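quick one before i forget lol
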Amino acid sequence: MIASLSAWVRKLRPEDPRRIRKFRDRMAGVSWDKASLVESLSQLFEAVDDLAEAEVKYYYRRRGTRASLSGLFRILAWVLGSIGLLLPLLSATDQPALKPLGQYGYSFLAAAASFLAANSLFGGTSGHIRFVSTQLELEKLITTSRVSWCEFLATLHSTELSDAEIKGGFTLIQEYSQGLYAKTIAETGNWGETLLAELVKYQKTVGDGSTAGVKPK
């Protein structure tokens, strides 16, 4: 039970430093003599590739969470907003029993607005879109990098690599790793900017609402 809980908690960690330690340990036993360079470069590429796949799995997992939040908040907002619009209409009918319902319309509309605000504040819809976009960009990077690596291996004439071929192999791997972190860093920066903007917007909305609720003396 404890082991399962620990595995579940580790699964939820977005950026586990142990992945980098695993990358280092994986490279520790690699030989870089000229006779082993093709195999060593391939192992280095696979290690970077594993880091990229881990990011894709992370974004795939998180997009599901954000999609659920977005769907829940929007459904609740729609239901409550619809009720808020219908109650005044019902109170305007000739049925005396329905007359008191009109006073609750604004309450339901306010609740609907709160769920829409929660969707924005907690990154429901925007987070889902951001995670899907980043996942697809990473998948594109992985695919193109793997194709480029296959092309590199196919052009080798022997296991004894020339200096130009060695440099070409390292360049491909460096471009792969740089592209990987460029996309994840950009997504994190975008997330931070969106969160701060939504916080400012929400604070302004709450402040305006508080001011409007104060009766002038």
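fyi Residues 37-91 form the longest helix (55 residues).
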